[in-house]
Amino acid sequence: MDFSKFFDDEFNVIDWLNQAFRLQKESNQNIDNYTGTLITKLQMYIQEMNNSIEETSQQAVQQFPRVLREIDVLRHEATLLQEQMRTVRGDIQKVNQDTADGMRNLIQLDSVKNRIQSASKALQEADNWVTLSAQIEDTFESKDTVQIATKLIAMQQSLKILTDVPDYADRVNRLEILKNRLEALISPAVVVAFNTQDVEMARSFAQVFQSMDRAQQLEDLYVTSVKTRLDARIKEIIDSTNGEHESIFIAIYDYLLNVWQDEIRWSTKIFNHPNRVTLSIILNGLKIFHSKYKNQFNTELQRQQTISSKNRLDILIACKRVSYRKVKKKERKSKVPS
What pLDDT digit, counting tens, does each position of 159-204 carry? Predict the structure, then answer.
């Protein structure tokens, strides 16, 4: 007899009985005997199930005290863990607070340290200014331009720190006067270096002028030194062309183009702004040419009253044509291939 059907969730007593009596028919047993046997087996199975339930109930009842004790232990441990977590959270908050306070103190201390350092540096620079100011006259008397420049640069550095002193403007004026004296003292040597194209000497002078924030003055000095050379050469070109105006323009533009190329190479080695220097030189050359050519042209017109207005116009058109060609040629050379 299959008693496992009783454990099915969809157990149906009618289906089970029908199945049981189908087995009776297949075995040809007496129905009364078969029914009695079936009832006996069911009673025995019920008794077995009761015994199993009772045994399981007794085991469960015996286990309750131990389970309750374990629950109490877990509850106690959970309470301890909660207390420990609360303690750790408090410690973390305290550490965070102490760290924040410490960082604020460190920032304040660093700020105070920087102020002290700034004040100390200002005092040192003030003392340095006084010392250098007292020594500078003796240094000028020695004519040692390197030492003079070194001291003036140091005074300039000190002055950058002493912007808030009451006599700051007077100190600035004094420093400028001293710089002018040094510039006047070394200008002849600078011009010699420029005229002889002495690159190393010119570079050393350029470093001195740049350190004193006078790079522009050095550039102006160089442009002025070149101007004399331009004046002589342009006069020579005009005088050598026998009054042929178109030839004058061609020769002048060729000369200035060569000057442009030479000066850009030289200025690049010496100055921070070689293009500015070269452009100033070329503009000076054009101004010199304009002045000298205009004077010669006017003198020629006065000497040759027979020149007609048309011939005068033809001369000007020819000169303009030369100028246009030279400018276009320079533009093409100046374009950098992409």
Answer: 777 777 788 888 888 888 888 888 888 889 998 999 888 999 999 8
Token code pair at residue 199:
């690159």
CA 223 vs CA 45, 70, 169, 234: distances in Å = 127, 102, 31, 16
- Dist CA 248 CA 242 (whole Å): 9
Domains of the chain, residue spans: 1-116, 143-213, 214-338
**Which spans in 212-273 are helix H?**
215-240, 245-270
**Residue 211 and residue 157: Cα distance in Å, rounded?**
10
**Run of H or E residues at 106:** helix 31-142
CA distance 319 to 243: 13
Query: Could you tell me if 323 and 254 are in contact, meaning their C-beta atoms sit under 8 angstroms apart?
Result: no
How far, in Å, CA of 231 to CA of 23, rounded? 141
CB 193 within 8 A of CB 202: yes
Burial 124-138 (b: 16+ CB within 10 A, else e): ebeebbeebbeebee
- Chain centroid, CA 301 distance in Å: 64
Token duo for residue 20: 């049981």
